[in-house]
């Protein structure tokens, strides 16, 4: 079976996009991705949309069909992919499958979400609807899971509260150089540690914001990639895995089974291991998640990710730069777009288009976490030319 | 590339399922499908859920993760597939891609929707949210498109109003022998023609009902199908295609471009043509749609499908039995389940498990229509042993 290449990428401005709706955001990223890849809309065979909740947020459904219309891509086949907060990663997997199966020779994936017209409470409730009803009825939200897990992690592994704050500081620092990031401002550790408590011990700056935005990737068989791009990326490993949907049933709350299993599958498929990864985008919806993914993916032993962060290991000039894009923390987290935007960052790093964020990388990984690790997709890409 | 087999199928009772919710319905179909296929939950690698709007209908999202949990199928990868009213057909396509790409050697697809707890107005509005905003804002609903199109068809092709009614009569007659159908009662032509007007000239009995229900299929590479089943079906052709999302932009309202294009793709892939099809499930959300699909798929010339129906060509003992299951009309139309249930019927016909509905068939087709033909998926299967 031939390998699947990524030959183009795009990303809209993330942030508060007043007066623009999901259909506008998807079209903006879609048009830019077509241009970036040098592909005519007519040549797109499958057009996939990663989106969690356009119906709940906007009362509009059928957005993939609207996008095909707006891009004049008919009769391209369309489909919406939802895997909650990992809809973007699920979209990469679906787009990969569409090309690898031979169903499509040109698949564009566009992820997007429009959220900021809702209050924080309303948006949090839409997101919380992804939890198991047995937990939802107790008023559980994802931030509350994060707070409980962070407290457990800090106590059990004797990690300082500051180490979590340093994740936020690092990701904000990276976001300064990302012109599409929602926040392009540094924050210092003191600001993080003194921000309002949301779910003790986590504070406002341990959380990603609510965001509008869209991102896109163009996938095709590697055999024709050269016709479109001198430099491109190849998806060498990809896998997804679930963990218990009832979060409190997990044996060890610091081990995200979906991260471990999807990582294992992606490593096995690619032939690479954790030491081969040069750059990674992790799903830092909450600072604590960056630790859990680093450990689940083998970038640190259990209970030791915080030390790697303290040592500067994950800074842009460190051994393994993590979230060079700014991460969800400073780039923002438009649900369906986030996993796609992770792919955009890794793609840009591999083809040398990351501008001031550029690091030296031949192999990159992204990990997109649905819910509180309820389903996770891990993708490994390498540079090609 | 190896072929993809269907080795098991299931379907819950369709109808009004009081006190049961989407998660219950999906789990019921999922458990039955595992049993029917003789597959352990542990062996399911990908678990796909076709569902349009659990968030809008029930305020619950993340249902694929809930299903993995309920079936104890972790760490199976899960994903929700939404393509509005053709989510089920899109699910078959996605499940096919997951196996054909080598990503999964055992994919279970479960489609479902829980709708009847909403009023007809509420459910119709959720469905109408799939239309283009430019049309939605004028208060357009899918039944209104159907009424306009039916009027145009009858006048232009000089077709009698009765011919549409006969589609309803036929499908209700078939539904009598489907123990899972919502309506297992015959209706006579007079009843159809005298039922209340919904969208002139279409009346109540020209429309499918609002339904709760779930259906499932088990897919694997044909190379291992024999380990699970003596008789199985093989997907030999499958394709999907969009038409203009703004319905009034179509040049000819009686030609559904998505049906034509997806049919063309599926025929080409399978090597079969319209004359090779022995049994078909068409998306009769409205009686007029059965005519348009028959014509788009080459079962009749444009403007002549009504004659085939008048001649009894599409009866169970006719040349090409259509909607032996009872169709959406009498079986019911739980959005995300309907396309999967079409696949279940064709599978059962091909492996000889259709009981009193059994017809003689080696090759079958199903056509699942999203919106008013905004995106359509056509699947062709053949019997194997």
From TrEMBL, chains A, B:
Query: Which residue intervals make up region (Disordered)?
Result: 312-331
GO molecular function list: acyltransferase activity, transferring groups other than amino-acyl groups
Keyword field contains Metal-binding: no
Domain of life of the organism encoding this protein: Archaea
UniProt-listed Pfam families: Thiolase_C_1, Thiolase_N
Q: Which residues form the Thiolase N-terminal domain?
A: 4-223
Sequence ranges assigned to domain Thiolase C-terminal in this UniProt record: 241-382
UniProt keywords, alphabetically: Acyltransferase, Isoprene biosynthesis, Transferase
Under InterPro entries, the record lists: Thiolase, Thiolase-like, Thiolase_C_2, Thiolase_N
GO terms, biological process: isoprenoid biosynthetic process
Supply the name of the protein.
Propanoyl-CoA C-acyltransferase
